[in-house]
Amino acid sequence: MNGKPVIGITMGDPAGCGPEITVKALHNPEVYEACNPVVVGDAKVLRDSVRILEEVGYLKKNELEIHQISDVKDAKYQYGVIDVFHLELVDMEQFEYGKLSGMCGEAAFQCVVKVIELAMKDEVDATVTNALNKEAINMAGHHYAGHTEIYAKYTGTKNYAMMLAHEDLRVVHVSTHVSLKEACERVKKERVLDTIRLANEACRDLGIEKPKIAVAGLNPHAGEDGMFGREEIDEIIPAIEAAKAEGICVEGPIPPDTVFSKARGGWYDIVVVMYHDQGHIPLKVVGFVYHKEEKKWGAVAGVNITLGLPIIRVSVDHGTAFGHAGQGVQNELSLQNSLDDAIRMAKSRIRKKQERSGR
């Protein structure tokens, strides 16, 4: 082949923005200069996205071709041609943009399962996922909280974590999709230490040779020496000391109301956060930009990376945008960011694999 990493991209929920932003992202010739992209989805849906983008004037007539394949080896990897690993998933007579349905939930789920399978077989070097709808996949009978849990199940991974990134601001979570009460109960030394290790390895995969890691406190003022809770003293500090003993460059616990400003200022490469919203809020404040005068979203940027997996998984950091699906107006920036990080991580893993094999 041409030496570029193969990136498998799921179309996401077909009734959402995933197919449209996939076509928009693959309209950029720079993507093909950096990687070999292949979309896992229903070719009929992707062709319909091309039609919509032609109608709104984003694409010229016949500017892009959908190339339907059933084997990655048949992909062309040629700009102007979007290779789609076709799964017969969507009945277009029943299909409707912006509509929650079990059919679309099943389609989104099967795309994820297939791209995981391709990655586990080394047929793709990294995976990038578009948004799915959790309610839709549950309607289809698949009871998962989201992509992260699906990947963990189908790769047999027990120790994993979610990392969000926007430009140089990165966070990795000790816990994610659980209640706040349970999240506090999950702040234990071993889990915090595992998350610090995952954060360190993720930064190295992204090309940061000696990552500087901050660990956020759980409580206000990081507990204020036990005045506002003992989790920092009993669990977080012992984890930090153990990580330091392993040679990891880590500091904390740092009060969560200041740690993100410090990270944005270059003090740290990544922040270990204790629960879902502690990490999601700062990332989305800087990555999601709403223009109040125009009453519309501008940038919707940032990526979601699952750490600890045997394969690479990077995702857009937004939802399905059902309210605007099928209109040709969706912003593809988060998907572009996801492709960039997936390519970097894939190249890093390929290089490490070659070094281990002595080539």
Automatic annotation (TrEMBL):
Q: Does the keyword Ribonucleoprotein apply?
A: no
Keyword Kinase assigned to the entry: answer is no
Q: Provide the cofactor list for this protein.
A: a divalent metal cation
Ranges annotated as spanning the membrane: none
| Gene Ontology molecular function, alphabetical | 4-hydroxythreonine-4-phosphate dehydrogenase activity; metal ion binding; NAD binding
**Which enzyme class?**
oxidoreductase
Q: Specify the domain of life of the species encoding this protein.
A: Bacteria
UniProt xrefs under InterPro entries: PdxA_fam (IPR005255)
Stored Pfam families = PdxA
Q: Which UniProt keywords apply?
A: Metal-binding, NAD, Oxidoreductase
Entry's EC annotation: 1.1.1.262
**Which family is annotated?**
Belongs to the PdxA family. PdxA2 subfamily.
Quaternary structure, per UniProt, is: Homodimer.
**UniProt-recorded name of the protein:** 4-hydroxythreonine-4-phosphate dehydrogenase PdxA
Source organism of this protein record: Schaedlerella arabinosiphila
Gene name on record? pdxA
